[in-house]
Amino acid sequence: MRPFEGRRVLLGVTGGIASYKTAWLARLLAQAGAEVDVVLTKSAREFIGAVTFEALTGRPVHTELIAEGHALDHIKLARGASLMVVAPATADFLSRAAAGRSDDLLSACLLAASAPVLLVPAMNDRMWAHRATQENVAHLRSLGYTVLDPEAGPLASPHEGSGPGRMPEPERILAHVGRMLEAREALAGRRVLVTAGPTREALDPVRFLSNHSSGKMGVAIAEAAWRRGADVTLVAGPLSIVPPPDVRIVHVESTEQMAAAVRAELPNADVLVMAAAPADFRAKKVADGKIKKAQRPDSIALENTDDILATTLDARKKGAVIVGFALETDDVLKHAREKLAAKKLDLIVVNDAREAGAGFGVDTNRVTILSATAEPAELPLLSKHDTADAILDRVQEILNGR
Fold first, then answer.
1. Which domain CATH number covers 206?
2. Residue 243: inside a domain, yes or no?
3. Same domain, yes or no, for 329 and 365?
């Protein structure tokens, strides 16, 4: 999937050690289909060479404001861009940008740009915290630029320790690029509620009932919805992966807690995607202390947990799109259609737990999307990120129709 096909991204690189990360960002942008025009400042060329970016993007790299035959490069580059990104943006560049300077090619492009601009600062933590830098950032935001705060962590020099100043990883920057490119035509202004991962039902203080869900599918949907401009809340059971950094997360443990969190959020949600795999059973009585082997009972009495979708019907916002998931082993489509009707869903996403490459714990999925009004859409084996985009395409069609 190449979501940035036909888009041109102007990628500026300033003289910071984090510029090595920008090479990978250029590669990710090109893989996503973007035409990437790279502008290197003089100091950036001390850290990384133009030939690196030429090899990764397949396009010439621009370095000089005034060069023979290229006197108006800053105008052509800026006007042709769908988005401008500067990563890393040093403290010096932020200062010059805030003052409206245009004494090199990159700062001149910034002044000539009419496309959205994403600035990604990276510097020493004390430089980032300095009042002058913070005032420059505040002024740049007031001009309409998006400034992505640096992350905390180990800084470049082993003598600096750690703190806020690290450039975010290229994958996170790519997600922000996607949000800025796609938000105006996708889910901007919509509130999307996603559930992910398993739940755990205690047997005693150290044991629980659960399942093999990793949360990868739900996290992929939350990330894709955020990239499309939505205000995303992720209700997450114990995940096996790192949750996305740019969405609001409500952590839960049990099915009862997940149901309560969904019920609290649902009245304001335009979309609910129930991608979690809540435990279906819990112990009727949870032991106060650890059950010893010598005292192991012959059986443990179980009872059903609440069906979250079935018990939140009354809390749904009028016109909201509700998406359920079903993981089946027998009569897959038959059981999915029954759930679609019983739980009053707009869509249900179903797959076969026995199929290789689909289901729990893997990075791919093969699903069929069913609705009450259209023929089933059987998707090929895709990454969970591409599956998420396919699901949200259907969600957007329904939203637009309402």
1. 3.40.50.10300
2. yes
3. yes
* Residues 199-213: tens digit of each pLDDT: 999 999 999 999 999
211 is catalytic: yes
Residue that is last in its domain, among 182, 214, 243? 182
pLDDT reading at 71 higher than 60? no
Is residue 155, in this structure, part of any structural domain at all? yes
Measured distance CA(148)–CA(61) in Å, rounded: 24
Of 135, 163, 182, the residue at which a domain comes to its end is 182
Helices (H) and strands (E) in the chain, counts: 13, 22
Q: Which residues pair with 86 in a beta bridge?
A: 12, 119
Q: What total of structural domains would you count in the chain?
A: 2
- Distance from C-alpha of 40 to C-alpha of 26, rounded to nearest angstrom: 12
Rounded to whole angstroms, how far apart are CA atoms 27 and 11?
Answer: 11
Range of the domain at 155: 8-182
3-class SS of residue 325: strand
Name the percent of the chain in helix, strand, coil, to the closest 5.
35, 25, 40
State residue 374's pLDDT score: 84
Choose, from 124, 136, 211, 400, the residue flagged as catalytic.
211
Q: Tell me the C-alpha to C-alpha distance, in Å, between residue 354 and each of 136, 211, 359, 360, 389.
A: 56, 15, 8, 10, 24
pLDDT digits (tens, 9 = 90+) for 213-226: 999 999 999 999 99
79-124 confidence digits (pLDDT tens): 889 999 999 999 999 999 999 999 999 999 999 999 999 999 999 9
In 3-state terms, what secondary structure has residue 327? Answer: strand
Q: Provide the pLDDT for residue 153.
A: 81
Q: Is residue 2 part of a domain?
A: no
288 and 158 both lie in a single domain: no
Residues in Cβ contact with 367 at an 8 Å cutoff, skipping those fewer than 6 apart: 349, 350, 351, 358, 379, 387, 391
Please write the tens of the pLDDT for every residue from 342-372.
Answer: 999 999 999 887 887 777 878 899 999 999 8
- Rounded distance between C-alpha atoms, residue 354 and residue 346, angstroms: 26
141 and 214 fall within a common domain? no
Region class of 215: left (phi > 0), else alpha (psi between -120 and 50), else beta: left
Assign residue 20 the CATH number of its domain. 3.40.50.1950
